[in-house]
Amino acid sequence: MSWTYEIAINADEVHRIICECDLFQATAEAPAPVRNFQTTLRRVAEQCVYLTRKDGEIVSTFTITTDPPFPVERLSCFSPTNQPLYMSRHALSVKFLQAGDIIGLQSFRTAMQVAKNRGGSMLRAETNPRLSRVVTLMKMLGFEEKGFADYGSSCIYLQRTLSH
After folding, report:
1. What is the domain-level CATH number for residue 26?
2. Sheet harboring 84-92: ordered strands across?
3. Which pLDDT tens digit goes with each residue over 14-48?
4. Consecutive H or E run containing 32
5. For the segment 148-162, what is each residue's pLDDT rounded down to a tens digit?
6. Which listed residue, 13, 35, 108, 114, has the most CB atoms within 10 A of its CB?
7. Which helix (H) or strand (E) is 30 found in, with range?
8. Total domain count, the chain
9. pTM tops 0.85
10. What is the rounded CA–CA span in Å between residue 96 and residue 77?
């Protein structure tokens, strides 16, 4: 089994994976968010969107940025640091989710390695607390919950120190 990652170049492909994953995980309590294709286009053009592959097949996508993907007033819950990076739009291929493959762990580890390689001291993320499996996995990987907000939809904020 070969696991690789690369910078994404096809915004349509990335956006499809994100939207399919959102719909797959949606529930009445946690509906799929509305995604903005222009954001996907911009982030792909900025070369901050990554794809992971298993034996050549796309497994996941995630975005690593220096700017937060949420309003800056929500940053107050985080500890100060010199080089924070932000992970967003983390999505897994529905094909692998349906098969029951445990790919989330490897995908998050890859995202942490990418952030570390980019010089980040801390990796921060925002997620829906109703995605309990995602939150549990992130905490198992060393992310700490730093805050909660409800701006029409609930969000929790997590961060993890990246050791160099």
Report:
1. 3.40.630.30
2. 3-7, 49-54, 57-65, 84-92, 122-127, 154-161, 144-150
3. 999 999 999 998 888 778 889 999 999 999 999 99
4. none
5. 877 667 889 999 999
6. 108
7. none
8. 1
9. yes
10. 34
Q: What does the DSSP assignment read for 43-63?
A: HHHTT-EEEEEETTEEEEEEE
| Contact assessment for residue 63 and residue 39, using Cβ atoms and an 8 Å cutoff | no
What size, in residues, is the chain?
164
Domain range enclosing 38: 3-161
d(CA 61, CA 90): 6
* Nearest residue to 104 (alpha-carbon basis) of 120, 79, 87: 87
Average pLDDT across the chain, whole number: 91
Angle CA(67)–CA(49)–CA(138) in degrees, nearest 5?
A: 75
